[in-house]
């Protein structure tokens, strides 16, 4: 029996197009002899459109942005996939950013009692909000660079006080980011008050909360984590941007970044990063997958930057490349994630809901 797999992609998010690229790559890799693939497209306006079963890989992203009869999200997910009316065996949310990666869709899938790939409600929402995530990491004793954060309404009341706090607590250089966004959207590096003012304006376009982080001289090293209760780590990989930092364009458009896999680090450093990755995974109660991102100084000091609870699967993406170099090819990685989703769902069914 082939597995009925619902692919959920697009989304009402600034990362809509990143999600489309991820969906394209996953569809190309899936074995049609093992899976019946059913696309569910969420438009940039938030409409849900369920497409026909895919019988061949799509050739362009445009084919994934199909039109048709829109439906309410729960109906699109629970109304059955195919003529026999059987529901989906697993949903694979290929969504990035708010309204998809932040626990909102995961909560709906939980209510529908559908198995789904990736992190649950808590890990997704905490991992999306960089401030909450960093607060949890601090409680877990994980080393981080200094940071501070602001709400738009407070900033609008006294912008000068916000800028002064950044300069006093962090200094320059620093990085300003929307708290609830990924893929390096809305991020700015600041080396002066003028750049800081522009950065706040930019970041607040994408979220009501921004986080500002201390800039340090360090290497950017990432590790993939895979599993549920007993997660495993990939080899480490290093990002070497040819510009000031690893921005959206370098990630998804021009590939203007060198990825060194495995990273040229010592075994002691590698072991330290693996231990920190697992600690971060468990602190957020993650499941399925995360990519853990670190700063590694010349002195061998490691700081966790963040985890991404739904890393991309584009041709330039680090996560699948890390696992490929660890010995798991892309298609097998996807199958492993589907199996982990089923494993977690079955484990949840043991929970009693009456007493």
Radius of gyration: 20 Å
Structural class by helix and strand composition:
alpha+beta
The CATH architecture of the largest domain would be 2-Layer Sandwich
Q: Hey, roughly how much beta strand do the residues contain?
A: 15-25%
What general outline do the C-alpha atoms trace? globular
Can you tell me the CATH class of the largest domain? Alpha Beta
Could you name the CATH homologous superfamily of the largest domain? ATP-grasp fold, B domain
Unreliable residue runs? none
Summarize, please.
This protein is α+β, with helices and mostly antiparallel strands and 355 residues long. The protein contains 13 helices and 14 strands.
Kindly describe this structure.
The longest helix is centred in the last third of the chain and has 19 residues, at 330-348. This protein has 3 domains: 3-116, 3-Layer(aba) Sandwich (Rossmann fold), CATH 3.40.50; 146-214, ATP-grasp fold, A domain (Dna Ligase, domain 1, 2-Layer Sandwich), CATH 3.30.1490.20; 217-347, ATP-grasp fold, B domain (D-amino Acid Aminotransferase, Chain A, domain 1), CATH 3.30.470.20. It is globular. The chain is built from 13 helices and 14 strands. It has a 5-stranded mixed sheet with strand order 4-3-2-1-5, with helices on both faces. Strands 12-11-10-13-14 form a 5-stranded antiparallel sheet. The protein has helices at residues 16-29, 61-64, 73-78, 104-111, 121-128, 130-139, 152-157, 159-169, 193-203, 248-252, 267-283, 318-326, 330-348, and strands at 3-10, 35-42, 48-50, 70-71, 90-94, 147-151, 174-178, 188-190, 209-214, 219-227, 232-241, 257-260, 288-296, 302-308. Helix 1 links the parallel strand 1 (3-10) and strand 2. It is an alpha+beta fold and 355 residues long.
């Amino acid at each position: 029996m082939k597995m009925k797999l619902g692919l959920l992609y697009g989304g009402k998010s600034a990362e809509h197009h990143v999600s489309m690229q991820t969906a394209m790559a996953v569809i190309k890799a899936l074995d049609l002899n093992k899976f019946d693939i059913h696309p569910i497209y969420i438009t940039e306006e938030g409409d849900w459109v369920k497409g026909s079963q895919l019988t061949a890989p799509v050739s362009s992203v445009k084919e994934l942005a199909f039109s048709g009869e829109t439906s309410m999200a729960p109906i699109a997910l629970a109304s059955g996939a195919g003529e026999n009316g059987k529901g989906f065996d697993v949903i694979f949310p290929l969504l990035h950013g708010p309204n998809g990666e932040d626990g909102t869709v995961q909560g709906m899938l939980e209510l529908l009692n559908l198995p789904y790939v990736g992190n649950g409600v808590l890990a997704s929402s905490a991992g999306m909000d960089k401030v909450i995530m960093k607060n949890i990491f601090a409680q877990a004793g994980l080393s981080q660079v200094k940071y501070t954060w602001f709400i738009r309404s407070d900033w609008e009341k006294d912008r000068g006080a916000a800028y002064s706090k950044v300069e006093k607590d962090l200094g320059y250089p620093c990085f300003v980011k929307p708290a609830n966004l990924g893929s390096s959207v809305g991020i700015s590096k600041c080396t002066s008050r003028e750049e800081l003012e522009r950065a706040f304006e930019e970041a607040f376009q994408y979220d009501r909360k921004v986080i500002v982080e201390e800039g340090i001289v360090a290497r950017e090293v990432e590790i993939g984590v895979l599993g549920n209760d007993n997660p495993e780590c990939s080899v480490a990989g290093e990002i070497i941007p040819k510009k000031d930092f690893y921005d959206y364009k370098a990630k998804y458009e021009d590939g203007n970044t060198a990825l060194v896999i495995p990273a040229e680090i010592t075994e002691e450093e590698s072991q330290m990063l693996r231990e920190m990755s697992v600690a971060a995974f468990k602190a957020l109660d993650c499941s399925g997958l995360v990519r853990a991102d670190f700063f590694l100084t010349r002195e061998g000091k490691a700081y966790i930057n963040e985890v991404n609870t739904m890393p991309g699967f584009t041709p330039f993406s680090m996560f699948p490349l890390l696992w490929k170099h660890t010995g798991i090819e892309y298609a097998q990685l996807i199958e492993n994630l589907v199996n982990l989703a089923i494993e977690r769902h079955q484990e949840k069914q043991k929970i009693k809901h009456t007493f």
